[in-house]
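user: Here is a favour to ask of a fellow structure person. I have my own habits and do not want them to colour yours. Could you put it straight underneath, so I can go through it closely?

assistant:
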Amino acid sequence: MTITQVESRTARRAARKKPPRRGVGRRIAAGVAGIVLAAAAVYAQQNFSVSFEQRTSYLTYKGRIGETVETKRFTVKALSVTAAHAVDTTDYSNKVSKVATSNLFLLVDVSATSAREPFKLSRLSPPVLLTADGRRYDPTDKVSDSLTLFNKYIQPGFWSSGLLVFEVPEDAVPGAHLVFIPPVSPLVRDNYAPEAQIDLGLSGAAAGRLISQAEDYHSLVSASR
């Protein structure tokens, strides 16, 4: 074997072992992927490093009971407030049963319509009863959602009505407001999400009358049908 043949074979082996060059398209794709990952990291830091309360801060629109409160996403009004010591509910088989409380059930009759897209109220970010001293009460879980406004679609062009039922102590009634909140995502920050805060007209005297005239029993089944 000559020296020339050995050199030729060595050159061929080196050529086979030489890694292929990356094309321009692959380099561009890798660069774009890097930018996307960096942007995702920045987004995650901005959205997940803040608390749930910060991610769900709202623009507040205010009104009084009987008034129409209009926001960019929905329009709502509280029609009336009733108090009761017992209400009814249903189970999955639609069997009706009575539930009572040692406190009060406040039943707020609410009507709402959507500006653009239909939605349903969410238990993750529900409407709340806000007291004069800043306490917030979610709608009671003693009552089936099928009997309340949670069961209604709030749609553009139509008014949907239903009750929101809160279980509260008597000292929560004076000065109470309804804060109506549409469903929001716990993951995505929306600095412009609207809420409607409605004064229920429960001044000292009005609150006293509501409490003293609370019904022993208020049927929700007949009201929802």
Remarks:
- Residues 42-56 have pLDDT under 50 and may be disordered.
